[in-house]
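Input chain follows. Return structure tokens only.
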Amino acid sequence: MEKENTRCFIALDLPREAINYIGELQKQIEKKNLFTGKFTETENLHLTLKFLGEIEEEKVEEVKKRLREIKIQSFEARLGEVGVFSSKYSSYVRVIWLKLDGKGVFGLQKLIEEKLKGIFQPEERFMSHITIARVKHVANRKEIIDYIKNLKTKDIKFKVDKFFLKKSTLEAAGPVYEDIEEYGL
């Protein structure tokens, strides 16, 4: 019998204040009707520090062991600007994101990379972002990019004192995330 792999990622969860605010931001963007696509469910909002993909149980255990070794002080993070993943050379916009600022975010991500060296490829370019919408179609690329670029965000700061190894189960209605293990800072 073939063993089933687990789709995993390492993430920071957001406090309720940040989640509520992002929900308001999503409604504000949705009212503009600038694209077709899907907004991230508020219960699924998070910052992915590293996506691990489909991994076997032995690897999950090794990841848990290595992540337990991470020692870093808790730190402050804050919600930053809103932006899009797009290409200057094509008409598409694929993702609308909200940046998560804070040196500690990058420090933690770097430590995770170091701890998992040898079993996962390092991230090419880590960008501290929270996906708030996935875009299927845009009628006017310039209009959506200009609108997003000019969105002003509320300055919400919060303490990060833990991160998580999570399981992602893809279902027809969207992904379902479960915590596999929590790591205190």
